[in-house]
Design brief:
Layout: E1 9-13, H1 39-52, E2 56-60, H2 70-79, E3 83-88, H3 95-104, E4 108-112, H4 117-124, H5 129-142, E5 146-153, H6 161-171, E6 175-180, H7 200-211, E7 218-220, H8 231-235, E8 254-257, E9 262-264, E10 276-277, H9 283-288, H10 294-297, H11 314-317, H12 322-329
Parallel strand pairs: 1-2, 1-8, 2-3, 3-4, 4-5, 5-6, 6-7
Antiparallel strand pairs: 8-9, 9-10
The structure holds iron/sulfur cluster (SF4) (2 copies).
One iron/sulfur cluster binds next to helix 11.
Length: 345
């Protein structure tokens, strides 16, 4: 008998409220969703995750700091021996907020920065957002917490990544993750920003130059790669354990919950990949139903198409990021942005 699947990592969208209106926001954040989960409902979800064996919770939004009792949720997760981190745009994070982050038991804070000052402020549609994000990094660092940055890569900032690296390093960043902007949410309305397949060799060359930096180096997240000769090196978190690409983990060891209670294998997936709602059924029952999350739990090679259908790496890779495949092609199991297709040496 196969061992039960365990949601080792969970991403919780505490609210869709957000002070930014990013051009590239995949979830169209800004206003809250209708009837967002209340505090007791979130505590129940955190309890269910602990019961299922979850090891790490990421709190995000929207802007999770606009959920009034975020510190209490961190405490609830820590009380059940789970690591908890938080992803924020950094607006409003000063010494006092950073101290509260430390005191409630957050393990790490990740701040979104999508380019140099002018680009970041324009993409976020908030003047001064870049400077405030840098201030947040310094405050979190000085509070003694690990501070990372996540950057979306798009046509507006690809050429700036190498100039951004020393700025992030000087501010105190110790981890820098990159993800491709994909045509989801507001990014669907700003398709001119999406990196076309023809620019992937340029991105790969920039990543390889960045990988040779002596200081802060970025690492790839799930929707960039795969299967180049140096994918493991580019993907592994700086100073961390080797992290090979093992295909999409949504519904296998990863789960997400939206601020109105919907459960998905990953919050980047489209609504057709909703597996249930915690208001109708417990998270434990949804997760343990073998018929949910079928795109991964019942994966078949027939799901592959395009270049992925003939790829010798497909058994392990399964066509790259499922959410990106849905966003770009309306189905899982296909990638036109794979580095493997563009690895020109
Ligand atoms: S072509 Fe498709 S299956 Fe092959 S490595 Fe790239 S994304 Fe994965
Ligand atoms: S859909 Fe993409 S981002 Fe989400 S878990 Fe799968 S590979 Fe990762």
């Amino acid at each position: 008998m196969k061992p039960p699947l365990v949601p080792l990592t969970a991403v919780l969208e505490l609210t869709l409220r957000c002070p930014c209106r990013c051009q590239t926001c995949g979830s169209h954040a800004g206003a809250p969703r209708t009837r967002e989960l209340d505090h007791d409902e979130w505590l129940g979800i955190i309890g269910s995750l602990a019961d299922l064996g979850c090891r790490r919770i990421s709190l995000m939004g929207g802007e999770p700091l606009l959920y009034p009792r975020w510190g209490d949720l961190v405490g609830a997760g820590r009380a059940r021996d789970m690591l908890v981190d938080l992803i924020t745009c950094g607006l409003g994070v000063d010494e006092s907020v950073a101290g509260a982050m430390r005191d409630c038991g957050l393990q790490a804070v990740t701040i979104s920065i999508d380019g140099l000052a002018d680009t970041h402020d324009a993409q976020r549609r908030v003047p001064g957002c870049f400077e405030q994000a840098l201030r947040a990094i310094r405050c979190v660092d000085q509070a003694g917490l690990k501070v990372g940055v996540t950057s979306q890569v798009n046509q507006g900032n690809l050429a700036e990544l190498e100039s951004l690296a020393p700025i992030l390093e000087d501010a105190g960043v110790i981890g820098w993750q990159l993800q491709l902007t994909v045509p989801l949410g507001r990014a669907e309305e700003n398709r001119h920003l999406i990196v076309p397949p023809a620019m992937m060799p340029e991105l790969l060359a920039a990543l390889r130059r960045l990988a040779r930096r002596p200081g802060l180096r970025p690492h790839l997240t799930d929707n960039i790669g795969y299967a180049t000769s140096d994918d493991l090196k580019l993907r592994t978190i700086q100073g961390g354990f080797p992290r090979p690409w093992l295909g999409c983990r949504a519904g296998l060891d990863a789960v997400g919950v939206t601020s109105d209670g919907r459960v998905k294998g990953c919050l980047a997936l489209p609504d057709i990949c909703t597996e249930g709602n915690v208001r109708d059924q417990s998270l434990v029952a949804i997760w343990n139903d073998p018929d949910r999350f079928s795109y991964n739990r019942h994966y078949m090679s027939a799901q592959l198409s395009g270049a992925c259908a003939d790829c010798e790496q497909a058994q392990r890779c399964r066509g790259g990021c499922t959410a990106t495949a849905y966003a770009m092609h309306g189905r899982p199991g296909i990638s036109t942005h794979c580095f493997h297709l563009h690895d020109i040496g």
